Amino acid sequence: MTKKYLVFNWKMSPSSAEEALELLEVIKEAISQEARPSNPFSKIIVLPPCLYLYLMNQIINADKVLAKKITLGAQDVFWHNRWAVTGGISPKMLKNAGARYVLIGHSERQQYFKETAYMINQKIKAALVNNLIPIICVGEKEKRDVDSFLVKKCIFEQLNNNLAGIKLNAGDTFIIAYEPIWAISSHNQGQGQPESLDDINKMIGLIRFWVARRFSENIASKMPILYGGSVTGANINLFAQSSVADGVLVGRASTKKQELKKIFQKLKRTNKKFT
Ligand code: 13P
Questions:
Q1: Is 80 a catalytic residue?
Q2: pLDDT band at 213 (very low <50, low <70, confident <90, very high)
Q3: Taking Cα atoms as reference points, which of 9, 46, 6, 39 lies closest to residue 24?
Q4: Probe ligand 1: pick from 47, 111, 185, max atoms within 8 Å of CB?
Q5: CA-based nearest residue to 254, from 153, 205, 185, 193
Q6: Residue 25 annotated in active site
Q7: Which band of pLDDT confidence, cut at 50, 70 and 90, is reported for residue 40?
């Protein structure tokens, strides 16, 4: 897999549609300046708050540069299209507003909304039925030795429970993000450190092994498995050069204009090394 995913999870930022468009402008400027199409992160997926999806989709579709490079997704979804669910957003609504991807099972949804494995499982099924591509999050709560039995048990349990009863065909796109909860910047007052590349590679290998056993080796070899947790402009190059992570899921740094610029500037420099 040569082309990588750069996924921006804006969480509950920014506070207005105008600011969301300013962030989009930063991305547009960066991708218009790309000297050649060799950026290792060729797929840029933006997951804004769903309030801005429709507007952002209109702007992206009206702009050739943006439309070619950016795809939109949502940060959550309910698991029915028609039901009395106050505040719920259905898969159909997301699709009609322009989302192609949906993030499911983020640890913050579990922390603040008490999402259970059953709910995550229902959401994944609903996304697949409605042709939304799921990006599902798994990750351990506390920093431990990644070779320890406890870490493996924790990740396998999440995968077993969240993907219970789910069938995938060889052509289906399905993305897993390995996101250790302890590495998320908000758990560290915005000053988090990503997990070491060695440990990330081990964990991604472990997840791919699980996918091969649960689905097939063919599906496992093609499934994008990303890393998330304190990815910034300062360390993005590590992931651009990793042959194991198929991309990154960036939170905080993708919501700050300067940090976002830095991410693309660093990638531009990486490109030179790649030529
Ligand atoms: P940070 O990049 O802020 O650590 O957030 C990671 C994350 O939660 C992305 O989903």
A1: no
A2: very high
A3: 46
A4: 185
A5: 185
A6: no
A7: low
Question: For position 189, what pLDDT does the model report?
Answer: 73
Ligand 1 in reach of 248 Cβ (< 6 A): no
**How confident is the model over 99-116, as a mean pLDDT?**
97
Query: What is the rounded CA–CA span in Å between residue 176 and residue 104?
Result: 10
Say which residue, 259 or 188, is predicted with more confidence.
259
Q: For 3-274, which CATH superfamily applies?
A: Aldolase class I (3.20.20.70)
In this prediction, residue 268 has a pLDDT band, given cuts at 50, 70 and 90, of confident
Q: Is the distance from the beta carbon of residue 236 to the nearest atom of ligand 1 less than 6 Å?
A: no
Contact assessment for residue 24 and residue 247, using Cβ atoms and an 8 Å cutoff: no
Range 253-269 burial, b when 16+ CB lie within 10 A, else e: bbbbeebbebbbebbee
